[in-house]
Write a structure and sequence with these properties.
The protein is an alpha/beta fold. It is 36% helix and 27% strand. The strands form four sheets. The protein has a seven-stranded mixed beta sheet. The protein has a six-stranded mixed beta sheet with strand order 8-2-1-12-19-18. A three-stranded antiparallel beta sheet has the order 3-7-4. Keywords: Monooxygenase, Oxidoreductase.
Length: 376
């Protein structure tokens, strides 16, 4: 049986392990954290992510674990609607709505379906192999794992990528995100833009709300962020203050960064996947979706011949890197703070026809017909 080693047990790594095992590979998953990290607040799965999960036979479980997004769109800090997302129309065009669920629940679904994870097995180095010899993965415990395929799914600061593609550097955006869950029943979701900061809201099962706020990193507090967030957004439109007041559990703090692209996604028998290949800002909600699409494509294209990895890269790299560029641009625009820039952003967003917005979203997500390409 063909052997594959997946480095990293995040969402993308687990998805690739599931997809490869379904394709007949013998899969070993190595993860440096013990236990594998399952922390998180919420995650929104757009229709393209759900189609990829369908190919892993996990789509219905994800839908059942989440809440279908209610109506939403983009607002100003005062609550003026600039653009609406018609949830029913999205489902008509895409065959699915947006499913929002706790990120730990999605992680648990993937973990349960994946091959066993060897936790506490950080990778020290990889011999990439070639057409005549297998790759070899060395871990911190002295383990030596030969494989016909190595999947580097070890995230933004990938050890494997750094060894082979050091030119792919982490790029700080100058913004910091705060993510939390609140005991609040949401009537309308979406994102609201201020001057230099923005807030997003989405419904979670059980009458809860997933919320995130992004501010310039230089303004982020050093201590407990929740009192600061409540004061910072106290004057924003309803229900932003109410959601922050109803926050439960910890507030997760993450400086936002993305990745300058590596020269290639494969070398010898090693292939990059997910954030290790194309880490992006969260502004389009596409980080997990693109990793899931990578996983499905890799399982379909990879063989014991390492030259097959060129087909995987050709299939996925242009689209994933285009999404990463669009995401970075979207984040920069949402964080504009100069009065003239904010006025221009407001005017242009409000003037964009709904049909044009829908067409742009469909280009980003693909169409339900592309699901045929993902049938195992």
């Amino acid at each position: 049986m063909e052997r594959a080693v997946v480095v990293g047990a995040g969402l993308g790594g687990l998805a690739s392990a599931i997809a490869l095992r379904r394709a007949g590979w013998e899969v070993t998953v190595l993860e440096r954290r013990d236990p594998p990290a399952s922390a998180g607040a919420g995650i929104a799965l757009w229709p393209n992510a759900l189609r990829a999960l369908d190919a892993l036979v996990l789509g219905d479980a994800a839908r059942d674990a989440g809440t279908v997004e209610i109506g939403g769109g983009i607002r100003t800090a005062s609550g003026r609607w600039l653009a609406h997302v018609d949830a029913a129309d999205l489902r008509r065009r895409q065959g699915d709505g947006v499913v929002v669920l706790p990120r730990p629940d999605l992680f648990a679904l993937l973990l349960a379906a994946a091959p066993p994870v060897r936790a506490g097995a950080g990778v020290t180095h990889v011999e990439p192999g070639d057409a005549a010899t297998p790759a070899v993965v060395h871990d911190e415990a002295g383990g030596r794992h030969e494989a016909e395929l190595v999947v580097a799914a070890d995230g933004l600061r990938s050890v494997v990528r750094e060894a082979f593609w050091p030119e792919a550097t982490v790029r700080d955006t100058g913004q910091t995100a705060f993510r939390l869950v609140a005991d609040h029943v949401l009537r309308a979701g979406g994102e609201s833009w201020g001057r230099g900061e923005y807030v997003g809201l989405g419904p979670l099962p059980g009458g809860r709300t997933y919320a995130y706020a992004v501010v310039p990193s230089r303004e982020a507090p050093a201590g407990d962020p929740l009192p600061w967030l409540r004061a910072r957004f106290a004057g924003w439109h309803d229900p932003v203050p109410a959601v922050l007041d109803a926050a439960v559990g910890p507030v997760l703090v993450h400086p936002l960064a993305d990745l300058t692209p590596p020269r290639a996604w494969h070398r010898g028998r090693v292939a990059l996947l997910g954030d290790a290949a194309h880490a992006m800002t969260p502004n389009l909600g596409q980080g997990a979706a693109q990793a899931f699409l990578d996983a499905v494509a890799l399982a379909q294209e990879a063989t014991t011949d390492p030259s097959s990895l060129a087909a995987y890269e050709a299939r996925r790299r242009p689209a994933a890197e285009a999404v990463a560029r669009r995401s970075r641009t979207a984040g920069a625009v949402a964080a504009w703070r100069a009065p003239l820039a904010v006025a221009l952003r407001t005017a242009l967003t409000a003037a964009l026809p709904a049909a044009a917005s829908a067409a742009a979203l469909d280009r980003l997500l693909g169409t339900p017909e592309t699901a045929e390409e993902m049938v195992p």
